[in-house]
Records
---
Amino acid sequence: MHRVRCGLAEGVEDLLTGWVAAGRSQSILSMYGHEDLVPLVEDFGIESRPLPARRRDAPAPSGGSKAEHMVRHLDALRDTVDPRRTVVIGDAADDAVAARHAGAHAVLWTGGSHGRAGLEAAGVPVVDSPERRPWPRRSAWRPPGRP
């Protein structure tokens, strides 16, 4: 398989290090096949973070929704993760839809393949840099859609 070599966006390594140092965790849900995802995560050097990378449970057609996969992903982590206190960071509007469906918050990043206008249409914060942290303080977290 041909894979384009790339790295983490500037600031992501420091963000993840600070995130874990503050007692938080991260997990990866990807529509990538598991046999491709694990080496990719290892190549980025983020496999040692506290929660595992997970893949879709069954093949999904290209362009299909991630919503049910997100629900299953967060359910598998239910002993340590509360969806209402979870922030999904994605690069596609479907990531925000999936987060909302699972009861989580979402932040979309413009560094992926989708343009800002399409991301903003999802109705969640959109950032150009991982250093911009638009998620609420823990004390202000509420389930999505509630005041």
---
Amino acid sequence: MFGSKKDPNEQIFKDACKAYKKEDYNKAAELFSDAAALGHVGAMSDLGLMYAQGKGVPRIKQEAVKWWAKAAEGGEVKAQHNLATAYATGDGIQQSYEDAIVWFRKSADQGYYKSQYSLYRIYSQGLGVQKDEVKAAEWLIKAAEQMYPKAELELGRLYISGDGVEASEKLAVKYLKRAARHGEESAVEVLKDIRGD
């Protein structure tokens, strides 16, 4: 009477996640499908991933994109990122940087570091937009502040080159050391180059 009412859909999703972790992909796909049919956006996103990887279901990129689009519309951050990536690469859907940017932005605005890093790449390379090193650096800083090693490495390099940011050896070393601590081995080589080792 006073306890919280358990959401059966959430339990199906949790059971699907357990099955996936146990590598029982057929069971996971079945449960993700059940939860997705009941409107669970996390299940939709994960079902899309299973179709992209061909785990428990046939590998069908268009089906993956369909589920990511449904989950993305529901605000699921990783689905937004995966949908944006599909648009950027044209994998399973008509390639469109314009649509990719829309979905990367929605995901990045929710704080997803991989989408922030993807926007850095889009603006630094001018993919479907005018190249903008300052805007690229702004997105990269956001990803690096979340301790994403690739972003830390790239930001260290930007502080060396001064592309989109004011050059600063002190900040370059700071981010390169962080990247190295987080497993980005090439950061060690860049640090050696700075020091002249």
---
Amino acid sequence: MRAGKWLKSARTGWTEAERVLAADAQNLIRPAVRAGEKWADLGAGSGTFAAALSALLGPSGAVLAIDQDARALHQISAVVGGAPVQTLTADFTALPPLPPQDGLLLANSLHFVKSQSVMLERLRGLLQPSKVLIVEYDLERGSVWVPRPLSFAKLQTLCAELGWPAPKKLAEQPSRYQWAMIYSALIAWVES
């Protein structure tokens, strides 16, 4: 589904900037997502990637958007012909058990987590996903906006230390917010 098919939901419509971000989000995650799957978007914020998941999963899929900011979650909507999106106000670093998911998406959220390895191991134990999709800035040094960057090289090292499958870089593009590239990487326990 193209970005032009985004739902004009409770909001009055999508701005051109939102359409561009929507297309970017879909391009980053498209290779990992299959129609009809169930995904949780951890640290969903106002829903750029939750909406991208909704569009790619289609009506037989499901999205669970999780963030501790209830006001941000209130902005999230599904897309026309897309998967329904449910929201849960919670800190994704301290989640209770959730229904089984086909995948977990952490898009621009791990760079806010102090102990990324502990966080990932906790998620693996809690949710038993078949795949984890990471979208992060490919930076080595932190900033105000990306306090604890997770470069692709660092993600590879982290996965090796956890005994996880090696991450596969799926896509990469220039960031619209940082002077860096943003990448998506899939960690899969099953063939996807």
---
Amino acid sequence: MTTRTHRPWLATAVDVWAMNSFSYLVALPIEIIIAGMSWREHLQVRLVALLLNSLVARPFGLWRSWVFQRFNAQETDGFWKLYLLDTGVFLSFQMPLYVGNMILGGAGAAEILKAAITVSLIAGLLGRPYGFYLDWLRTRVGLAAATAPVKEVMA
């Protein structure tokens, strides 16, 4: 498939879908099972997350692409380089937003602390799968992955 450039509306739509779909599937067991939130609290937090994720999805995608460019990340790089980059990008961007989202959603201090510690501990399990998922979705619609040559990434 040919990589299309200069389609910011498509890149935004893909980034928003990726972030919201991935976030919900990850947050569900963390918030309900581990943090012990009620379904009502969970749905309130997820509603706020839908809004916030939709607002930050594209900036996160651009941040990720920028970091990958700065470290000259390529598809052929070893697992550990891509893993560490995606984990660092994920933590540096998502953790402050996640905690803020829980505060806005009405979660209590103990719930926020438990959820934040859990997300920190499993960030290594989330960063690379999300990055892979985002790149996979982008390439399905003809957009460049973060590991694509620089001129293609900032579409």
